[in-house]
Amino acid sequence: MPEGDTVWRACKRLNQALAGQELVRTDFRVPSLATTDLTGRTMLEVVARGKHILMRLSGGLTLHSHFRMDGSWHLYRPGERWHGGPDHQIRVVLETAPWTAVGYRLPVLDLVATDDEDSVVGHLGPDLLSPSFDRALAIANVESSPGRTVSEALLDQRNLAGIGNFYRTEVCFLLGLHPWRPISAVDVPAAVDLSRRLLKANVRNGTQVSTGVDRPGQRSWVFERAGKPCHRCGTTILTAQLGEPTRERVTYWCPACQPES
């Protein structure tokens, strides 16, 4: 699933291309919006809120989308071949004079009043990539459930928005935390601060790197490295499923660098 830095970069590209442009054609291919026509409205801005994308339009409307596992937005020049996937995977087309934005495999696509954006993103905790990030609130949110595992707490977007499986896994490794360590035994401010530093660094870099080495096979300490030797100590990386409420995501850890106690 794309994480906060990936969504932020996508929004930046969309905003640079579409902001200030009038929509000359729109084509919605989801039943709930099949008769919607936004032609004539101006795209005011495209912003990220955690892993959510908010396209704010003139007339007080916001088009809200979320990538979930494999959604994406693509930008094309007039006459350029679309290559984001087969046509049946297209959910929406937004056309301006210089650009066409095509949303593929978007599992979430809603049109809401801009004044009512909280109906779709109001549940989110502080956005780690926001210039106005509320550090104190994020820490308090995470610490509010001391018996919860660090993995569950960091992935919960109601606590703080933007962390996905890559960052949660790598933060746990870098802080020496076993994935099932309870929050009561975690330095929560350190975990929040490290999460934000990694996300901000990778927004600039354009790739997800936690090791400082931007080369294939060396970008992560433990993420997607099950069965391989730990870069730090050589111990074999383990993997397991995390249960609810994290929807059985895979976790990775080094049993030597991240002991259970």
From TrEMBL:
One of its GO terms (biological process) is base-excision repair. It is an enzyme of class 4 (lyase). One of its GO terms (molecular function) is damaged DNA binding. PROSITE patterns: FPG_CAT, ZF_FPG_1, ZF_FPG_2. It catalyses: 2'-deoxyribonucleotide-(2'-deoxyribose 5'-phosphate)-2'-deoxyribonucleotide-DNA = a 3'-end 2'-deoxyribonucleotide-(2,3-dehydro-2,3-deoxyribose 5'-phosphate)-DNA + a 5'-end 5'-phospho-2'-deoxyribonucleoside-DNA + H(+). Its cofactor is Zn(2+). Belongs to the FPG family. This is DNA-(apurinic or apyrimidinic site) lyase. It comes from Kribbella rubisoli. The lineage of its organism: Bacteria, Bacillati, Actinomycetota, Actinomycetes, Propionibacteriales.
